[in-house]
Amino acid sequence: MDPKWDFRRLPGCNGRSNLAEPAGITAAMGGSDGGTRKAKAKPVLGSFMTVFMHADAADVVLMVLGLLGAVGDGLSMPVLLLITGSVYNNFGGGADNVQEFSSKVNMNARNLVFLAAGQWVMTFLGEHRVTC
Question: 127, 69 in Cβ contact below 8 A?
Answer without folding.
Answer: yes
